[in-house]
Structure formats: C-alpha cells, structure tokens
Amino acid sequence: MLxxxxxxxxxxxxxxxxxxxxxxxxxxxxxxxxGVTRDRREGQGxxxxxxxxxxxxxxxxxxxxxxxxxxxxxxxxxxxxxxxVALFLIDGRVGVTPLDEEIAxxxxxxxxxxxxxxxxxxxxxxxxxxxxxxxxxxxxxxxxSGEHGEGMADLFQALxxxxxxxxxxxxxxxxxxxxxKLAIVGRPNAGKSTLINKLLGENRLIxxxxxxxxxxxxxxxxxxxxxxxKQGEPDEEGNIPPLLTERRVRLIDxxxxxxxxxxxxxxxxxxxxxxxxxxxxxxxxxxLLDATKGLEVQDLKIADHxxxxxRALIIAINKWDVAENASSLFNGIRGxxxxxxxxxxxxxxxxxxxxxxxxxxxxxxxxxxxxxxxNKRVPTGILNRWFExxxxxxxxxxxxxxxxxxxxxxxxxxRPPTFVIFGNRTDELPASYARYLLNxxxxxxxxxxxxxxxxFRSSKNPFADNN
Length: 467
Description:
The chain is α/β, with parallel strands linked by helices. The protein has helices at residues 15-23, 68-81, 98-108, 127-133, 152-159, 192-200, 266-281, 297-308, 326-340, 360-375, 380-393, 431-444, and strands at residues 4-8, 41-47, 50-56, 85-91, 114-119, 142-143, 180-186, 218-225, 230-231, 242-243, 246-253, 284-290, 312-318, 349-351, 405-413, 418-424, 453-458.
C-alpha cells in the first residue's frame, strides 16, 4: 500500500488542478464554478521520486450534515482521517478567509500531520496570502502553482518526512488475479453510488435524493470475497483448494447520463464526458437500470455505446426490493433488450438491490466471468478447425456466379476479442454471412455475450492488372 496524501481546502482554491498535476493526467474535473468536486477521488501520485496515493476532496464547508455540502464535508473528514499527511491548500490571491481559519482549527484538532501550501502564487501574486497564512499556525507555508507547476521542489521537501515512498504496482492485465476494472453507469438516480457503498460496506460515496450528485468518475480499489470460488488442483492428500477467494476490483462510479438534448449545463457536459472516459478505461461495464422506471431509450443508447467501445456489458436492474410485478418486469426488460440490442444477444441481466444487497455476489461473479471471456485467446489450431467446419456447413455465397473463397482465420487480439479472416473477394461478402460467423464464434468458442469483432482481408490477385 502506498502512503496517502489528502488535499483539503475550501472550494475553488485549486485542489483538483493540483491533483491532476500530481497524477500526471486530467482525472478530476476542473472549472471556475466552486464546488465541482463532491466525492473524494483517489489517484496514484508522483512527485520526483516520491510515490503516493493522492486524494482530491470536496471543498470543506460548514453546513448541516443532512445537506449535500454537509455530506461532502463528511467525506473530506474521512479522507483526512485515513491519510498519512494532509495537504492544506489556500488561495494566495484571495488570502486567508474565515472558512480557511475554520478548516485550520479543525485540522489542528486532528491527529493527521499538516503541510500548508499557498496555491496560485505564481510570480508575486500570492505574496500577501503567504504572509497571512502564517497566522494559521502550521509553520512556513509552501508557495506553489498547481496550474503552472511552480514550487513542486519545495512541496517535495515538505512531504518527504511524512512519506516513505513506494513503487507503482505493475500487473499483467490478463492474469487471473489482475484487478477487475468495473464501471457502474446509468441514468441519474439509478442508485450507482448507493450500490458501490453497499459493496464496500461504508458510506464512501455521497448519496441522496438529489439527481446528479456524482460529477467526477470515482475509482475505488476493493477486495471482493468470492463466496463460490473456482477450485484448484487436488493436493497430495486429495484436498481441492479454492482459487482466488479474495479478488481485487477497481470500482468506478460515474455521473448519470441523461439524453444529450437535455444536457445543457457545462458541468454536466464535463461529467458525462468523464463517464464516457470511464467506460473506455473499464474492462466490464454494469449498466444499472431503475426497476421503478423500467428500460428506457437512453438505457439502450448507453448500452450501445459500451458495446461500440468493445467493453463487456452486464445489465443490472436495481431497486428490485420495491419492484412491482417483478416477474413480468424482468421478462419485459429481457425481451426489450433482445430487440434493442440485436447486435449482442444474451447480455447478462441480473436483479439487484443496492439497499438490501440482493444479487450483488452474482453480479460480481458475472463480471469476472465476462472479463475472462473478454480476455480469452483461442489457439490457432482450434480456431481454424472450427473455421473450416463452419465454412463447410454453410459455404459463402457466390455473387455474380463467382465464388468467394475464405482461406484461414487468426485471432489478432483480445480485450475485446478480434479476429481476422483472409480470403479473396471478401469485400463482396454479405453482412448476413459475417453475422453467421460472429454468432458461431460466440456460441461454439465460449465467448458468451462479450463484443467480438471480425475483420476481413482479401489476398491481392497478382493477375488483376494484366488484362
């Protein structure tokens, strides 16, 4: 485990900008509007040869715990409690505000060491703020600019006593024990954050009746204890040990995705774009439906986007504990999916409840099975024996009386499984025949409902130009 640095400060002092600089990429949404960040976001940070987990927190506001700002503050307090050091950020251009003083009083009462940094101090713009910050009681402040990268050497020296350093984890993404990157997507208020909180067994993400609470895509590493693990080889005494009883998951919570025509607000546009980026990052995507609303056109559009991006898809119907006419609802959604997602038949459909925990273990089990199929490679010999049998059983058509000859097939890649078929005049092959091969690959080679792609390549005819 890497040591943890939590960034804390009032809204709009530049916490997310500094977070993005330390992780080396634009993970957190950044905007001039105060309060963009709501949940705490974690990333792997690096400052010269220091490596750590960096946590971007919501702006600390003194509000009632039942309000949205109050719930945001509780998340910030939890982040500080779990950190090795708190990086307290103030705005050097504005100087020390009453809320900065309130945060400082709270930090002095916590057990977590504090490093004070004055942001937006490029040039001499932060001089007054630097002088004022001494009154907060944390010693010499560090003058930095998260946007321009100034002061990073001084920040390194300030963090060094609190961080032992570490190394980034390097993993083979195709290994059975690799972290499963699992994104939860869906329309607003489908219960995505509540579902993740139930899996974690804690209120890690802010939830509530307000639509659109989640803005950033938040990733959280977690260990799932598989109640029904796969079995290993028998030992000398004949005992069959379980394999991978503890399985690593990177849960990714995303903002609700409404119809594009309804998304007018700039921040919501950024949030939806971030959710789409999370789909690109994931291996398996769970599309969460609301059982009280059923399947809508927007759900099918989200599912189609997941499939087009080549990610394994699972559909979960949430709020099953309050669903009416459950059996007919399930069958109705299944039928609508078969019709609306005709390009990918048999997508797993699982009923869950984020409130009671129903169906969550089957959901995780299905996700690992989907990742296994998504990772799968078929040996060339097995693949071509299947291919020869499939072509013999249903030969390609002969448009214009000229036969299309398909010669051999290879798997070009996995994640998602992609195959290349070589032959002559493959550009004249009808789409229906390509679907025949695609469905056969899924069915006979055990790829299930993961997206499978086929590309066709024609051999060059050396006599084509000799007329």
